[in-house]
Design goal:
Elements (H helix, E strand, L loop, with lengths): L8 E7 L9 E6 L7 E11 L1 H9 L9 E2 L3 E9 L11 E5 L12 E5 L3 E3 L6 H5 L2 H14 L7 E4 L7 H10 L3 E6 L4 H7 L3 E4 L5 H8 L3 E6 L5 H5 L3 E9 L9 H5 L4 E4 L6 H12 L7 E6 L3 H8 L7 E5 L3
Parallel strand pairs: 9-10, 9-12, 10-11, 12-13, 13-14, 15-16
Antiparallel strand pairs: 1-2, 1-4, 3-5, 3-7, 3-16, 5-6, 6-8
Helix pairs in contact: 3-4, 3-9
Length: 325
């Protein structure tokens, strides 16, 4: 049991109003109890994602109103199981993604969720490394495997390839046999190449679209983790019949009519709970083909500092909150 909390309460980081990182404050809240079909997980580490910043500031995709506790990615140990759970038992070390975009509170000492939201933590990956994977890696897996139906030998353009999602996307793309072009600032090129990228384009040095055209012509898949005008600028780079996946805003669905005229699948994609996909991610991690680069690991109470750091846009890899000692 955590210091300062009873068996009925737990430490968390929550917010009572929307705003900047300073609205995140340590709180004591009710400790959840697993219902039928659920497990109670004692959280050892919680992943921090850009979607957390948007939810903290604006309420996220659901326009949620505080008070709430952020966080979707967790790694920890099963503490108890609800009636009917058979896939996990107390003592199992697990990681997983709480239902996105619903606010179920990963920035906390304990979480509850359906048992199949979690899989066993791969050997050789610690809790911080596991907590950095679920949302980002599942998003990429679903984008490439389910949405784009990627095939070995195809070419993919990954925007912000050094970022929290992008650096996972490079590794997963290579594991799927894809040829990877990544965009990143010049100082991150070596990092992106170490991940396996075949080519890296400095988006700050000129028009990335022109650079891609001059290098390879067109690509089969674009993964847009940036937003803004990147979708519209990237669409002409996609070959007829290819796929452009936007991970940033539903407004990118406006690209669909133009894309459809060339048989291109385009638009916004929202990650979904996916036990099979999470097991595939865990298998890649167990094989050493997928690793989250941890830019910084901070104590749970320093969640505000993690958000401030993340919003600089200069983070290479992922940020993680350390929850258990």
């Amino acid at each position: 049991m955590s210091s300062g909390a009873s068996e009925r309460t737990m430490r968390a980081v929550g917010q009572r109003r929307l705003g900047g990182p300073e609205v995140l404050q340590p709180v004591e809240v009710a400790r959840p109890v697993p219902r039928a079909g659920e497990v109670l997980v004692r959280v050892h580490a919680a992943g921090v994602n850009p979607t957390d910043y948007k939810t903290r500031a604006f309420g996220g995709l659901l326009r949620a109103e505080p008070p709430f506790v952020l966080g979707h990615d967790v790694s920890g140990v099963v503490e108890a199981v609800g009636w009917g759970v058979t896939v996990l038992q107390p003592g199992d070390e697990v990681f997983g993604m709480l239902d996105y975009p619903h606010l179920l509170g990963g920035y906390a000492e304990y979480v509850t969720a359906p048992g199949r939201r979690f899989v066993r933590r791969p050997a050789g990956i610690d809790h911080a490394g596991a907590a950095a994977l679920p949302l980002g890696a599942l998003t990429v897996w679903q984008a490439f495997v389910d949405r784009a139906r990627a095939r070995p030998g195809q070419r993919v353009l990954i925007h912000a390839a050094a970022g929290g999602v992008g650096h996972l996307a490079v590794q997963i793309a290579k594991a799927l046999g894809l040829s990877v072009i990544g965009t990143a600032s010049a100082g991150k090129h070596a990092f992106v190449r170490e991940l396996g990228a075949d080519e890296v384009i400095d988006y700050t040095a000129g028009d990335f679209a022109q650079a891609v055209r001059e290098s390879v012509g067109q690509v089969d898949i674009v993964l847009d983790t940036v937003g803004g005008d990147y979708g519209a600028r990237s669409l002409p780079l996609v070959r007829d019949g290819g796929t452009l996946v936007s991970l940033t805003t539903p407004q990118d669905d406006a690209l669909r009519p133009e894309a459809a005229a060339r048989g291109v699948r385009a638009g916004f994609m929202l990650v979904e709970p996916d036990t099979a996909g999470l097991r595939s991610v865990a298998a890649l991690a167990a094989e050493g083909r997928l690793r989250a680069h941890i830019a910084a690991e901070l104590p749970l109470a320093d969640a505000a500092r993690a958000h401030a750091l993340g919003e600089t846009g200069r983070v290479q890899g992922k940020l993680v909150l350390r929850v258990a000692p």
